[in-house]
Specification:
- Pfam families: DUF188 (PF02639).
- Belongs to the UPF0178 family.
- The protein is α/β, with parallel strands linked by helices.
- It is built from five helices and six strands.
- α1 packs parallel to α5 and α3 packs antiparallel against α4.
- The N and C termini lie close together (about 10 Å).
- The mean pLDDT is about 90.
Length: about 150
Amino acid sequence: MARLFVDADACPVKEECERVAVRHRVRMIVVSNGGIRPSANPLVESVFVASGPDEADKWIAEQAGPGDVVVTGDIPLAAKVIAGGAVVVKYNGEVLTDRNIGNVLATRDLMADLRSADPFRQGGGRPFSKADRSRFLEALERVMRGAAAGG
């Protein structure tokens, strides 16, 4: 049976993940460095890893496997879990699979190169919106239905 892993540090959609996990009666594993209140829901397990760079990512990459769904905005983590057979849903609802992760990684690397070439470039991405939340819920629901059906 599929599991839902949530890379919870800085994740804006934890509540939405729990709603979908409960609806599908799927075990949800929330992984963080701490500072996140554990859910009282018996389907939700909190895993607290050591503080340090990428500790939650390492744990998720070691645990997630075929049929699992991972919620993350971290592209290198996405590539690792996809290589292990999982499907990724980004916070904005973009679904990452073995068919598109190569292009996503290449774009990420290109953007990092462009940012490093312009030290005066300011700002980050746009704020997380209600439309992003809605797209995320729709994508996670679709992916979970597929995982439950074995595909």
